[in-house]
Amino acid sequence: MRVDPFYVTNLVGSLDQAQASEQQLTSELSSGVSVTSLSQNPVASGENVLLLNQIQQDDSFTQSSSQVTGQLQVADSALSSVVTELNTAISLATGANNGTMNSSDVKSVSNQISGILDEVQSLANTDYQGQYIFAGGQTSTAPFTTLPSESQAITIYNGDSGVNYLESPNGQKIQLNVPGNQIFMGSGSNSVFGALNSLVADYASGTVNTTQAVSDTNALSTALNYVSQQRVTLDNSITQITAASDAVTNVQTQLTTAQTDLMQADIPTVSTQLSLAETQQTALEDVIAQLNSTSNSLFSKIQA
Amino acid sequence: MGTINSAFSIMSGALDADQEALNVVANNVANANTPGYTNETPDWQQNQPLDVGGISVGQGVTETGSTSQRDRVLEAQLDQQQQLASASGSRLTSLNTLQALFTPDTGSSTSTAGDIGSDITKFFDSFSTLEAEPTNNADRQGVLSAAGTLAGDISNAAASLNSQRAALNQEAAGVTSQVNSLTSAIAQVNQQIMTTSPDADAGTLEDQRQEDISQLSQLIGINQITTENNGLAITTTSGQLLLSEGTSNQLTTGSVNGVTDFFLGGKDITSQLASGGGSLGGYLTARDQDIPSALNSLNQLAYSISTSVNTQNNAGTDLNGVTGTAANPLHIFNQPGEVAGSAVNMSVVMADPSQIAAAGARDGSGDNSNAVAMAALANQSIVNGQTPSDYYSNFVSTLGSTVSTVQTENTAQNAAVTQLQTQNNALSGVNLNDEASSMTTLERSYQAASQVFSMLNNIMNSALNLGEQTTVS
Predict the structure, then answer these.
(1) Which residue of B has its CA nearest to A10?
(2) How far are the Cα atoms of A302, B291, B440, B442, B454 from residue A296, in angstroms, in the given order?
(3) Amino acid B111: pLDDT
(4) In chain B, which residues have their Cβ closer than 8 Å to the Cβ of A74?
(5) Three-state SS string across chain A, please?
(6) Under an 8 A CB cutoff, do B425 and A5 touch?
(7) Is the separation of the CB atoms in B356 and B365 below 8 Å?
């Protein structure tokens, strides 16, 4: 049987392949990445896009949640101060209502409650990085202003009822703010500013209409309870965000592991493959050298 | 009855024949590395024996020339396989350049540049960041810069695809002149073969024709049809006549819809050539199928993201309290009119970050409901019924699978070519060991013939001197 006299060409082809595979393996080792082109592993390439998408979404949510946690904590501590102020106002009013104070003391109570009113208003106008946090969506203007009036002052709300939510990667909506009108201007006896303004007016003259004053003091107590209830919403949000952020960080860790498994080179395997390819190359080179040696040609054996 | 003279004549014939045969061997050895050369073997013919007085007397040998060791079926098979291999080879080269534009993102911070998948995520994530602080100018700037990166990477990729397509177009057009010069050359050789060797192998002429056909089949897909008098007709794979015997039809090119089309006898055969094989087939498949398909996907992605994001931004209120209208829309991206061309034209038209409408319609500037809605677009089926990331993920895995399939095809076809090549070389290649052995045999036979010749000379001496030993020597 005749054989292909150009077998060395084929061997050189194999040698090229061995070298190409060494090159590929070396680049995998040096970069640590196993999928360097789409065609190397189309499925992994597609999966990789989705994994990275989720990882980056999670990363972004973790960053956002630490930002909003700061804002929620500022709001919570403002409301905590409001509660303290309101408790002071209630005990002042209760003292004035029991009929033992003289006229100038009653007037002084009126002034003190008026001071508390200013303090509460300033707390309700708390801003975080220049944005008023109890203004609903109208965060660029201070939400509460008090207008003087003949009988009693009126505090008005300039904000709106807008509520912001932060959406977590799995679609959970976490409330970021409680609009000021809901906290401080609740309808009827829930209105903090209504009750405070009434009390200031009740004690302003120095004489106390006990029935009216007691009713207004009770209204302030109700309003205080209402503020505490609203504060729970914010506390819940802080808890939810911490929990969501922790959960997302866990998921992110898992996804990153999955992504690494998918795309990173398995060093021991690649090293073994590289060593095999090198052995093959050496073997091929030896074979070519042997076959190509001139002493293998019949012509060299012919005596002249 | 044979005579000493006739023995002389037999021996001189043998010496001539051996010399002729040694010539053939020398020619083989000389052409051992000539491309397309087919190994030749000497043809020996026994001379017609003489019938003398009822006894048949052998008259020696004549060398009547040489025969090329050729298997036409094998050669045609090799050409056929060569067409497929070079088609997938040139397509693979184009696809490799194409897929290099979409190298997988490894996820490490240093390798994310230029990856459209990450760009998409980062763009929509910038709205998630804005959710937390809708009035923050740095976050707003972040949205515009992420939008700029996304638009830039998509439009760069599309521009690269367009220029790849233009380069392929030129390469394809360049093949035409090579094809034409080969078909004319084959037609010429055809004519010579038909004149000089109508009913036998034409030796080196045939080698030349076969070499030209082999080159031609690397360029385009062809069919060979043997005609009368050892002639040949060649058609494209789909049956258009390229040459018949002594005449060849020229392939011409013309510009149709911005790309080069190929004509034969006034008929546009571009699509047939694309599926026909050869490197031209590969170029055309990449030019008319692979690149347009990638470009379409990018266009669809760019169009859907641009229009959805623009629409959503238009539906909200920006930091200045402005809500977009039909006359004065709040557009982040250049609003595309149609899907075609969306990718290459994708750009950010918004310069002022305060125009990002994070707040809902008629809401205060501190509202974030529209930012939430824009971030949520990332998980909505806005691109052909898929989320942007899903769409891009499908695009890269489809592209990767196509490249991988063509790669496998090409490897298999090259293996088949190698196998056929080996078979063909085994038959038609010059094996130097065989030649060495033939040469030795012929040398021996020449030596033997000379010996016999000198013996005959002695015998003739004896005959001439009639027993006297010294007169003639």
Answers:
(1) B418
(2) 12, 51, 17, 21, 37
(3) 42
(4) none
(5) CCCCCCHHHHHHHHHHHHHHHHHHHHHHHHHCECCCCHHHCHHHHHHHHHHHHHHHHHHHHHHHHHHHHHHHHHHHHHHHHHHHHHHHHHHHHHHHHCCCCCHHHHHHHHHHHHHHHHHHHHHHCCEECCEECCCCCCCCCCCEEEECCCCCCEEEECCCCCCCEEECCCCCEEECCCCHHHHHECCHHHEHHHHHHHHHHHHHCCCCCHHHHHHHHHHHHHHHHHHHHHHHHHHHHHHHHHHHHHHHHHHHHHHHHHHHHHHECCHHHHHHHHHHHHHHHHHHHHHHHHHHCHHHCHHHHCCC
(6) yes
(7) no
Cα A25 from chain centre? 40
Q: Are B117 and A53 within 8 A, CB to CB?
A: yes
* Substitution target from A12, A39, A40, A261 for chain B, most B beta carbons within 10 A: A39
pLDDT band at A144 (very low <50, low <70, confident <90, very high): very high
Chain A positions in Cβ-Cβ contact with residue B376 (cut-off 8 Å): 167
Cβ-Cβ contacts under 8 Å between A and B: the total is: 216
Residue whose pair of structure tokens reads 């001139």 in the numeric block: A294
Q: What are phi and psi of A3, to 5 degrees?
A: -115, 165
A99: distance to nearest CA of chain B, Å? 47
Closest by Cβ to B389, choosing from A41, A49, A164: A49
Chain A CB contacts of B398 under 8 Å are 42
Chain A residue closest in CA terms to B395: A46
* Per-residue pLDDT tens digits of chain B, which is 473 residues long: 568 888 889 999 999 999 999 999 999 999 998 988 999 999 999 989 888 888 888 889 999 989 999 898 999 999 999 999 999 999 999 999 999 888 887 765 444 445 899 899 999 999 999 998 899 999 999 999 999 999 999 999 999 999 999 999 999 999 999 999 999 999 999 999 999 988 888 888 999 999 999 999 999 999 999 888 888 999 999 889 999 988 899 999 999 888 899 999 888 999 999 998 999 999 999 999 999 999 999 999 999 999 999 999 999 999 988 888 888 899 999 999 999 999 999 999 999 999 999 998 888 888 999 999 999 999 999 999 999 999 999 999 999 999 999 999 999 999 999 999 999 999 999 988 889 999 999 999 999 999 999 999 988 888 888 766 665 55
Quote the pTM value. 0.86
Host H or E run for residue B453:
helix B432-465
Best interface-test mutation with A: which of B39, B118, B397 has the largest number of A CBs within 10 A? Answer: B397
Return d(Cα B197, Cα B339) in angstroms, integer: 62
Which are the contacts of A83, defined by CB distance < 8 A and separation ≥ 6?
A: A224, A227, A228, A231
Interchain contact B119–A (C-beta under 8 A): no
Q: Do A37 and B403 touch (CB under 8 A)?
A: yes
ipTM: 0.86
Nearest by CB to residue A37, choosing from B103, B118, B124, is: B103
